[in-house]
Amino acid sequence: MSRQELHARAESLKPDLEKVLDRYQTRTFSPEKGQKMPYRFFAPKIEDGKTYPLVVYLHGAAGRGSDNTKQVTGGNTWGSRIWLLPANQKAFPCFVIAPQSTTDDWAWTKEKLTVLKTLLDQIVRECSIDTSRIYVTGQSMGGSGTWFALTTYPEFFAAGVPICGGGNPDMAGVIVKHHIGVWAFHGAKDSVVPESKSREMIEAVKKAGGNPRYTVYPDEGHAAWMGAYTERELPGWLFSHKKPVAD
């Protein structure tokens, strides 16, 4: 599929994505004095006795700030809202969280990721979360953040979808050891984050014995999320992953 076709597919969903933004709750997490993490939170319709998956979306560089809006708008629209569409919630009801990094430079540093993990632990305690089905995804800076999250907290996540990001190939074995599903995406013509960054991670996971999926869009530049988040197979693939009872 050409770049134009991928973008047309993504743009065709815009009207439906605009309708679900107000389904997000606007919250701020303040674990310690001086620490703040704005975030958007969505809870599915809860049935008594049931637990539900949790999707964590990590925004790209354009989502940085403190307005609690940029991480779910602009280029971050698809990755943050696709899970809220009625058809997806009907087939795959889930909680969704879209945190916002206030960092002026690199968004998902170890410090910010530590704050986010504390927030996620709180949400797990307070909500009907299926702890065997917690997922992380993100684009660009958030794609790199996704790789970082998977290798930093491998016991926490069942699967990850890093888009046009890079990670540390030396940590790939951790992903395999903890049975984490991976489907990465990148544009072959990406001049912001070279496609080789994703390829290195995928090859390292394979070398460690894993079986990750990797999709490269040959005509796409940096905006690989336009195609990735509108792949029809993605929701089904993601929600099929479940952490083993014991690693």
Give a quick rundown of the structure:
By secondary structure, this protein is an alpha/beta fold.
Structure description:
There is one protein chain. The protein has 247 residues and is an alpha/beta fold. It has a single domain (3-239), classed as Rossmann fold (3-Layer(aba) Sandwich), CATH 3.40.50. The chain contains 10 helices and 8 strands. An 8-stranded mixed beta sheet has the order 1-2-4-3-5-6-7-8. α7 links the parallel β6 (159-163) and β7 (181-187). The protein is globular, with a radius of gyration of 17 Å. The model has no long low-confidence stretch (mean pLDDT 95).
Which short descriptors sum up this protein?
247 residues; alpha/beta; Rossmann fold; eight-stranded mixed β-sheet; 8 strands; 35% helix
